[in-house]
Amino acid sequence: MSNQLTRRLALLDDDAHRGLLGQGLRGIERETLRIDPQGQLARTPHPVQLGSALTNPQITTDYAEALLEFITPAEHDIGLALHRLDAIHRFAYSKLGDEMLWSSSMPGELPAEEDIEIGWYGKSNIGMLKHVYRRGLALRYGKAMQCIAGIHYNYSLPEQLWQLILASEGIPEERRNALRDFQSESYIATIRNFRRYSWLLMYLFGASPALTKSFLRGRQHSLETLSDDTLYLPYATSLRMSDLGYQNDAQSGLRPHENSLESYVTSLMDAVNRPYAPYAQLGTKKDGEWIQLSTNVLQIENEYYSTIRPKRVIRTGERPVQALCNRGVQYIEVRCLDVDPFEPIGIAIETGRFLDAFLLFCTLEESPMISAAEGQVHARNFARTVKEGRRPDLTLTRDGEEVLLSTWADELLERIRPLARLLDEEHNESGVHEASLAQQKAKVADPEKTPSARVLAEVRKLGSASAFGLQQSRLHAAYFRESPLMPAEEAEFSEMAAASLAEQAIVEQTDTGSFDDFVAAYNTSTLCGNHS
C-alpha cells in the first residue's frame, strides 16, 4: 500500500470523518433498445406516454430512436439508485404495449441502415442540433453503432472530503480556487488510475463475447464463427469495448491528455476545431439538408468515445467543456460497463458495490502522470482483456514486465479490500462491499463464473446470440409486467412525462433565429472563458 493511500485511509477511518464517504453521489444511465415481440428492432417512434426525449430528465433516447436511455437521479447509496432504475423500467413497460427491452449490449438482428431511425427531439433549434449531431454520427460510424447499449456509472465524492484531504496535505485553502483546482486534479488523477486498472472491470463484468453477424455490415473482422448468425471470440469478455465498437480513423489518433484538466480540455477543443479532410469532402449539408454539425475531427466534445469522462452538470446553452473550464470537475462518468443480460435492470447491486470500492481506490491511491508510452501500454492491456481476457495464460504488461492477468487481478483485489472494509464500516451494513469483493475473487479463480463465460455458454446452448438476447428479454419483460408500480409512483412518472412534453412545447414556441445561426453560434462557443 502506498504512503498516500495509507495516510488517506487513516484520515477517513477516523470516527469524525467516516460519515463523509456516505455523502458522495451515485447515478446510473442504462441504455436499452426497444424491440418487437420477435426480437426485431422496434420501428415505432419514441412512445409519447414516456414524455419528451428532449426534456424528460429520467427517460430519453440515446442515438437511435429505438434506443431508450433511463437516467436515475444521483443518490448517496447505489442501492437507492438501482431501486429507482427498477421503477423506471416498470413505468416504461406499462407504456410499451407488446414491445420489449433488449437485454444485451450488442443488438440482435438489425434492419438495413436506412431503416434504423435516428433519435428525434422535435423542431426546436436545440432539438434539431441533437438530431443533426446523430445524423453526423450515422455518416461517420454507420447506424449499427448507434444501436449498441451500455451502462454508465456516475460517481462523486463530497466537497467536504476534498476539503479534509486538502487541509491534511498542507495546501492552504485560502489560495484562490485551491479547493476547486484540487478537486478537479484529484478526479483527473482518479481517471489516470482508472486507465491503469480498468482492464479488471472488463474481465469481471464484460458480457458481450459474441455478436450477431448483421451488426458488422460486411466489415473486415477477426472473429470466429459460432453459427450461421453468430460470431464470437472464445476468450473475449467485451466485444462492445473492442475495436469493433465506436472507433474510426479520425478518432484513432485522439488521446486527450489526462495529466491535467487543462491538457484534457485543450486536446478535446483542438479535435472539435480541427478539420478532417474526409468529413470536409462530405460537407455539412446535402441538398440543403444538414447532415453533420461540422467537418472537424469531432462535431462536439461528447463524440469522443472514452471509457471514462470528467463531468460537470451543464447550464442551459453551455457546452460540457465550458462547464469544466469555468467550474471544474464535479463527478466522473464510467462508460465501459456492458449491460448485464442476467439482470432485469442491466446491472447487479454487487457490481455497484464493487465499483464504489474500486473507484474509491483509484481516487485515494497515488496516481503518477502517464507518459505517451505508458498510455499505449494501458490501452493494450485493456484491448487484450476485452478480446481474450479469459485465456488461461493471458499476460498483461506491468512495469515493463509480463504478468499473468489472474495474478495481477488477485493482487489488485487485495489492495482494494481495505477500501471495501472502510465503506462497510461507514455503511453500517454487514459486509456488503467485502462480500462483493469475494464474488469478484471467485471470478478470478474460475473464469467460468464471469458474465462473459456464462453468456457464451448460453449462446452455445441456443446456437445464436440473437436467440439468447430474446430469451433474456422475454424473461425480464415478464418480471416487470408481473409487478407493476404502485399508483402513486405511476402517477409521479406520468406527471414527469406530461411536464416534459409541455416544456418541449414551450421551447419550440419561444425559439428565435434560424437553425443555421444557432449552429454557427454553438460552434463558436467552444472557447473557455477565464475561470469564473
Automatic annotation (TrEMBL):
GO CC terms of this entry: cytosol
Pfam family, one: Glu_cys_ligase
Residue ranges annotated for the Glutamate--cysteine ligase domain, each copy included: 10-383
Listed EC numbers: 6.3.2.2
Top-level lineage group: Bacteria
Entry-linked NCBIfam families: glu_cys_ligase (TIGR01434)
Protein name per its UniProtKB record: Glutamate--cysteine ligase
Species name: Massilia litorea
